[in-house]
Amino acid sequence: MHYFRLYLQFIKIRLTSIVSYRGSFFAGVIAQFLSYGAGFFATWLLVKAFHELNGWTPYEVLLLYGMNLFSYALAAFFFFNLAVDIENLVISGRLDGILVKPVNPFLYLICNGFNVAYFSHISLAVFTMIICFRGLGISLTPIMLVMLALSILGAALIHAAALVMTSVPAIWMLRARFSDILYWGMREFINYPLSIYNRAVQVILTFILPYGFISFYPAQLFLGKEDYLFHPSLPYATLPVGLGLFFVAYRFWRYGIDRYQGTGT
Amino acid sequence: MRVFSGHKSQSTTILFFILFKLSFIKAFQYRGYILVTLFSALLDVFVRISLWTALFRANPVVQNTTFHDMINYMALTGLLMLVQMSGVDDRLANRILQGSIATDLIRPYSLKLFIFAQTIGDNLAHFLLFVFPVYTGVLVLFGMRFPPTLLHGLVFVATVINGAVISFLYYYIIGMLPFWLESNWYVRFVNYAMFTLFAGAFVPIWFYPDFLIQISYYLPFRYITYEAVTFYLGRTGLPAMPAVLLRQWVWIGILLGLEVALWKAGQKKLTVYGG
């Protein structure tokens, strides 16, 4: 409860800062909407020109984009700044100040890092998903809607876990950009059905870096796809995978903080 | 104020080479960065090759295009990143936003040439380190195509040079926007959208529905590299050649006029706070 009130305070401060730069905030929202929208539209046009991508129709592929962006935006809302700012906090020594505050440093950083710019991503993602379901003539039953919400939650946790984990090397001042690539570079893979890749990539994206659970596996469920890989129960696994991964990421982050040495600044 | 003051062409050449060398040295400083960028470029190409493989699995020829055509299109478009002058806009914009433009305006060199040299240097370093190895690798692996006739090849070279000029002017104009805007971080997103849709950066324009193709003719983006690549691949016949070159020159004229006008207006608008 205490954290919740603190969080609301932080959000209020952030929103105030937006109001002071209203013009550039809204220009930014529109620009980001356009940039993702153009990518979505180009992919849709491409698959439409070919009629299908490995048995997936244009709207079905677009749904993968939508689910990926929606869950990413939800995660980035809270965790983007945590992942990106940590390097500066360490170098400037401000992390020391945060560690001695009487709040959980993880929660403090999340609260403080609330990133409002993701409103545009979320609105585009929801808009895209609605277009897809309408275009496919699929009306989701209440149970399916709940499943969708839970899958998105699980997918957001997977994104969040990846963001949190990639921030740990920065705590140790290792500029291990390689961990960033594992996340930012691999994200591109899951905009298309996992079934278009060779077996090795499918194994990696299912069992090692389980990004397949962000969009491909859950989308199979809502689209009634049966190009199952590995096991037909995987479309239901997004939430458990997300919870497990996030737990591991949080432990790893705490482990990282316990071994934080400070720069002496 | 005239930025271009009397200078010998010799000193300009020297300046050019010094800047060029500097950006090269800078790129080689960060070995970790090189590895990581190379790896992500490889991932990116891998995803796109997988995508094209899957798309052509059902039909080997779609709209007169084969898998082999697409691989060559992708690699050529990638290699022509060399003449994409992105970076020009940020260099100019940052000077305006931070106010250092004030000193640039009184220095005895051409700001435009200075930014051009810096950008070419960075581009070439980037090209040699990442773009060239990755895409020549792709071409060696899948088989490289050559222009159908020598004339196609010559026209290709001419359109690439024109495209580079268009690209430079376009980004230079974009870089001037901070004369009128309080911040410009979002401009890159609009640029990205335009290049994705109208430059054929990812999907060739020939796959588009007709209305989008029509729109693309009224924007400068397809004249940067797309027209050149279609010549190289022999998709555009030689009879269309004069029209394409003419359109490129018209765009160069329009952008040049716009650049001069905006530069004049911008300097009147410019306020740099003292400090």
Structure description:
The complex is a heterodimer of chains A (265) and B (275). Chain A has 265 residues and is mainly alpha-helical. Chain A has one domain. Chain A is built from 11 helices and no strands. Chain A is globular. The two termini of chain A are 34 Å apart. The model of chain A has no long low-confidence stretch (mean pLDDT 81). Chain B has 275 residues and is an all-alpha fold. Chain B has one domain. The longest helix of chain B has 32 residues. Chain B starts with 8 loop residues before the first helix and ends in a 6-residue tail after the last helix. The N terminus of chain B is likely disordered. The interface between A and B is large, with 41 and 40 residues.
SSE layout and pairing:
The complex is a heterodimer of chains A (265) and B (275).
Chain A: H1 2-20, H2 22-50, H3 58-92, H4 94-99, H5 105-112, H6 119-135, H7 142-171, H8 177-184, H9 199-208, H10 216-223, H11 238-258
Chain B: H1 9-29, H2 31-58, H3 67-79, H4 88-98, H5 101-106, H6 111-142, H7 150-175, H8 187-198, H9 210-217, H10 226-232, H11 241-269
Helix pairs in contact in B: 1-6, 2-6, 3-6, 4-7, 7-10, 7-11
Provide a short characterization of the protein structure.
The complex is a heterodimer of chains A (265) and B (275). Chain A is mostly helical.
